[in-house]
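Exercise 7. Given the components listed, write out the predicted structure of the assembled complex. Treat all entries as one system.
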Amino acid sequence: MGIEGIGARVTRKEDQRFVTGLGRYVDDMVVPGMKYAVFVRSPHAHATIKAIDTASAKAMPGVIGVLTGPELKSDGIGNIICGWMIHSKDGSPMKMGAWSPLATDKVRYVGDAVAIVVAETRGQARDAAEAVAVDYDELPAVTDAQKALEAGAPQIHPEAPNNLIFDWELGDSADAERALAGAAHVTRMRIVNNRLIPNAIEPRAALGHYDKAEDHFTLWTTSQNPHLARLVMSAFYNVAPENKLRVIAPDVGGGFGSKIYIYPEEIVCLWASKRTGVPVKWVADRTESFLCDAHGRDHVTEVSMGFDADNRIVGLKVDTIANLGAYMSLFSSCVPTYLYATLLSGQYEIPHIHCNVRTVYTNTAPVDAYRGAGRPEATYLLERVMETAARELGVSPAELRRKNFIREFPHQTPVIMNYDAGDYEASLEAAMRAADYAGFPARREEAKRRGKLRGIGMSCYIEACGLAPSQAVGSLGAGIGLWESAEVRVNAAGTIEVLTGSHSHGQGHETTFAQVVADRLGVPLDSVSVVHGDTDKVQMGMGTYGSRSGAVGISAIVKALDKVEAKAKKIAAHLLEADEGDIVIENGEVKVAGTDRSLPWLQVALAAYTAHNLPAGMEPGLKETSFYDPTNFTFPAGCYICEVEVDPETGVTEIVQFVAADDFGTIINPLIVEGQVHGGITQGVGQALLEGCVYEPSSGQLVTASYMDYTMPRASDVPSFLVSTTVTPSPSNPLGIKGCGEAGAIGSPPAVINAITDAIGNNDLTMPATPQRVWTALRKH
Amino acid sequence: MYQTTYHRPSSVTEAVKMLGEAEDGKFLAGGQTLIPTMKQRLAAPSDVIDLRHIAEMKGITVNGRDVRIGAGTTHAEVAEHTGLASVCPAICHLASHIGDPHVRHMGTIGGSIANNDPAADYPAAMLALNAMIHTSKRALAADEFFTGLFGTALDEDEIVTAVSFTAPEKAGYAKFPNPASRYALTGVFVANRPEGVRVAVTGAGEDGVFRATAMEDALSRSFDPSALDGITISADGLMSDIHASAEYRANLIVVMAKRAVQAANG
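Answer.
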């Protein structure tokens, strides 16, 4: 691996600039003549817009323009769409309501954008925004998905009667019913997966610049996928054709899914720039982030799992209602379907699975993918059911899981997925060893003497990462292909630029991607630069989400490197008068194997560009591109074990130990992978213990709209994690990478809740398990 | 934030005069409540009169067991004051758990008690310590000073200049922080003197900080956590919100009181 190659614990190249405040984010961008935008937003959860009067706002000091929905429509800007088609079980397509980037007829959630004000300063724009008079006719609102389905509920979109977007199923219902009917034991639960607000540290921002001279648009935006943003804005929103639109996502401070989507603000800033003739910058304040960033999760599920007399799972039936909020965000439809129901087999051999999902409009912020996206919901459900079943059946949670593990690969589940590789027993063993599982009863006794209730819980998760291949996602309804591209550009003096369609917003790509190149060519890490996030620089790309940058993005780099290596060897063979097959590249030298004949890497690169002496017919240059489409999803898996102590007087839960044993396949940089796991677990702990989005049910006002009420996890809320990895390489990509970005957030919530319910002896507990809830559960017991 | 005019007086008299001349002026202490409120445009004073540069309002003096803390003293200064810690460590402990380091280096004791946020820590200490609140006009006992939710006996143009108290034999503070904001979801300050025990509760009452007399009586008989066994607090009059119901707060009051006594007894 070398000291900087694959597997090396290299510190992150990008951290110097991040920790010294030299990162360049959208709000750092300055364009001559740039002005500031503030959005006028709905204070109501549901209302008809009777009139919008902008006259007084337009007369305010410094105001350059005040623009509204009808003007946007008259310029032909399209509605925002969901890019993944789902059909209901009756064959009808999902019922997508219109989402205008600026509301025209109705507002449907608190924060819905109604107008944009552009002014000389932010303060002036804000003053003028308050002067825009919107005449609303308030309507009753509904925030709860189950209530939205009830007769007489407020109707949010005319396109979706009863607020039902689709009623979808996967698997055979009758088969699953039969299996449950014949089961020796059935565990039934109602599982709520709490709604979360993403809270990336950098709020969303957009700087739209229309250059009249060139008739060309540039958008700087906080995006996880600038090419996808350009594609969607061109193809569907009619903002500008792709050749006249450049999208740049510079340093981006965290995404967690919330920056995948194309939101109203970036569309409107671009359009407003052309309308007003000035570059327009908007930066969300924290309140806007709370109100308008796509939220995550929000499922309510009834689940039944049947076991035979030997404790083997015979069937699983799942009925889920998923809240999609007021509008269908870009990938909102695939999250509770193909990213959820397809994972319901977990790590287990389950012969019959049926999952029914109803997605529902409510007067809340749109809900879309959030770290894990569908897979945390599936894992939480399965792993709570497994732990509960073990308690009901009187067997140890580990034994019940072991009995049901899938042990042969490839394994075809009844819910589409074909698991290619894994060793679940190995993760379980590693985790139990690290957790000293056998020593738990003694620790529980010791805690009891201190007046604390100690509990232990586990979670064996699996996820599907990579979000590819294209043909597969296409057949499931995706509107786009999900491959990745890379260009490896060797410069004449031997340094290397890697242009990738992946986007780094905290993942450390500038380091890991360079490590892959350094590993292959033996060049120093410093001589490799990673270029991303600009549609004018990078050929094309699908961006970063679904833990796909390693499995798909790096694989594209590897494929491009294959081509670079092959050409470099041809050149070297020619110069060294050797056989191409005898050439090896090692430590920055291109050598004839087994001899002392070699050329420095620099000289081969230079030869490619001077082109004075190349093999006959070879084109000059050393720069290769690859578009890589994998053969399957990847399937990271692992086992997490959480140990808690509950203070019975207050209900406070302290996580006293957290063990993670993950199988991510091949690991490029263990330091970065551990960081991803730490961050993921902390987010999962956030969901399990702290984070709960609360809307006031009748008014639809967001109660948890600031850090005064929305609890983000802090360093003091988590222990030092004990993390380790086992490795079964993925057979579906060249390096055997599986992906690690989401695992922590997927695997940890059920481990935490299983531990608390074990400690308090009451299984009736919903997330977030706040002190009050735990105290209440203790008293009911 | 809306446009506002900033003033920097160097004496209490000048500050009061400036407020009198302002159309809709506000005194600014550490700014940990007023500034965020202004940023959210929920407060829009025409003039802000900054009290942070008035020398006479600063500093801590400890004379035997007599303590005087200038209103402009930051939480960090209180937390780290060794003289104060030697006579009343509980108040240093309390100050060290307000907000975060940033807040503690900006926020002041005068600002905190003048605002009388129902979830602030200092009002409980003032009440339990039977402190005197000194203002630009008078001095009055904490019992008279705190008058309800965000309510004090202060006139519009009256400035808290200092607080003073005699350190009790023993004192302790136990706080159950709001998981999100880290304000007191329930905080209990106990102070033990030969003439009796005072117990003040913050974060829980619908009318702000209050004294828990039943617990005072019990602890006056025996200053030990076990003295509170069997005591229950009624949920009536307690706050209820997404973080804690009135019933949960009622439980926390007793639990925190026991822990405060335990802390006081070392």
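Discussion: The mean pLDDT of chain B is 97. The two ends of chain B are 46 Å apart (CA to CA).
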